[in-house]
Amino acid sequence: MSNISLSQAVLYVKKQLKTNEICQQVGITRTTLGNWEHGKTTNPRNKQAEAFWNLYDELIQGSKEAVFARSITKLIAEYGSLWKGVLTLEKEWKKFPEWFALNRLPWLLYDHFYWPNNRKGDIIEGKKHFGHYRRKEPLFETMIQDAIDQAERL
Predict the structure, then answer these.
(1) Domain that holds residue 16
(2) CA 141 to CA 22: how far, in whole Å?
(3) Is 56 found in the same domain as 88?
(4) What's the CATH number where 13 sits?
(5) How far apart are CA 135 and CA 114, in angstroms?
(6) Residues 28 and 68 in one domain
(7) pLDDT of 65-122, one tens digit each?
(8) Does the predicted model carry a pTM greater than 0.85?
(9) Where are the alpha helices (DSSP H) in the chain?
């Protein structure tokens, strides 16, 4: 457990996970989580408190891979509906994560990457384009950090 207040910890966790996900993992209701967040409850039940602080610690100390995976899920939720591929981005991510990171990540991250449309649904007038359009391809490590940064802003 950390030296921050329960309400501060709830705010941090809510930036990483959806409210329903938190409630499900900890075994609490949305109302209970709201009470913790707003400081109405500062000393929750032992079992719930232990589950919450374990979740908090996991998120704080989570590996970059775990943070990256959560970020990809958020980005897919935001942009995946505009993907024109045979399989949905969700299915490709779940079944082939390494392949997905190498082949689909640029489309998910950058407006200047087309396959044949970009993540906003735009197409380049007059022709189909596959790949980066008038921009240099970023390094994979840069794309990982871009994914984490963009997901935090969603």
Answers:
(1) 6-61
(2) 29
(3) no
(4) 1.10.260
(5) 12
(6) no
(7) 888 888 999 999 999 999 988 999 999 999 999 999 989 999 999 999 999 899 999 9
(8) no
(9) 6-16, 19-26, 30-37, 46-61, 64-79, 89-95, 97-103, 105-109, 140-153
